[in-house]
C-alpha cells in the first residue's frame, strides 16, 4: 500500500508540468485553420485582380445573343482592339470592384475547406491524387456559394454597353427587377463546371508538383518546394482544367448575362436548354467561345494563385515556428 502511494505521487506532480510546456498543435501543414483562410484569401484576390482584363475579354466573347453587341466580335485580337478603341483601358477593368468583394472571402473558404478535407481524406498518404481531387470538389461547392452572386454582378458590368452604373446599382436593380434568385440561377451550372475543373486542377497540380520535384532532385529537395515549382505546376493545372470545362463556362456566362445587352433570356436554368440554344445558333463551335482567353486567364492565374498561397503558408509556418521556439 505504502509503495503504491509513493510511486503515484511523483507521476501526478510531473504530468501537469508537461502539459503546460506543450504548445497547442497546429491543424495541418504546421498551420491553424484561420491561417489557411487568410492565405487563400490573399492568393485569390491577387490572382483575380492581376488577370481581370483577360477575364473581361472572355466574358465579351461568350455573351452571345441574337442582337447582342458584345458578342459580335469573337476574335481575341479584335475584341481587345474594340474595347481599347471605344472604351479605353478602363473598359478592361469594369466590374473589378465586384470581383474584389467576392474573391477574397470565396478563396478563404476554398483553400481552408480544401486543406481540411485533404488532411481527412489522404489517410496519411501525401501523394493520394483521389483525395486531392475529392477535396477540391468539396471546396469548390462551398466557395461557389460565396462567389456566385458577385460573379453575376461582375459579368453584367463587363458587357459592352452595360446598363448598370456600378456594383451597388447592379445589385439593387437585379433584386428589384428579377428577385434575389437571379444571383443564383447559374449556381448549379457553376458547381457542375467547377467540380470537374477543380478535380482536374488539384489532381494535376499535386501530380505536376511531385513530377517537377522528382525531375530535378538536385535543385529541389524533398521538403524544399520552390516558387518555380508551384508556379509551373499551377499553370499546367489551370490551362488543362480551363480547356476541358470551357463549354460549361459558356453556359454559365449565358445564364448570368441573360436579358442584358441583347443576350437571350431563358425560361429555366437548365444546362441542356442553354446548350441546345447555343448549338442551334452557332453550332458546336459556339460552346468553345472564349476558350483562348479562358486558358490565357487560368494558366497564369493558377500560377499566381498557387505561388502566392504557398508563399503565405510559408510565412505562417515560419511565424508559428518562431512562436513555438519562444514558448520552448
Gyration radius, rounded: 24 Å
How many β-strands, per DSSP?
A: 0
Q: How would you describe the shape?
A: globular
Major sheet description: none
Beta-strand level of the residues, as a percent range?
under 5%
Number of helices: 12
Low-pLDDT residue spans? 1-26, 68-73
Portion of residues in helices? Answer: over 70%
Could you spell the SSE succession in H and E letters?
HHHHHHHHHHHH
Q: Helices and strands: which structural class?
A: mainly alpha
Determine the mean pLDDT. Answer: 82
Oligomer: single chain
**N→C terminal distance:** 38 Å
What's the topology here?
Blueprint: H1 2-21, H2 33-50, H3 52-62, H4 76-86, H5 96-121, H6 129-158, H7 167-178, H8 187-215, H9 227-244, H10 246-256, H11 271-282, H12 291-327
Pfam family, one: Mito_carr
Family: Belongs to the mitochondrial carrier (TC 2.A.29) family.
GO molecular function, one term: ferrous iron transmembrane transporter activity
Could you describe the 3D structure shown?
This protein has 328 residues and is mostly helical. It has helices spanning 2-21, 33-50, 52-62, 76-86, 96-121, 129-158, 167-178, 187-215, 227-244, 246-256, 271-282, 291-327. It contains twelve helices and no strands. α5 packs antiparallel against α6, α8 (187-215) runs antiparallel to α10 (246-256) and α9 (227-244) packs antiparallel against α12. The longest helix is centred in the last third of the chain and has 37 residues, at 291-327. Mean pLDDT is 82; it is low at 1-26 and 68-73. It is a multi-pass membrane protein. Solcar repeats lie at residues 31-120, 127-211, 225-315.
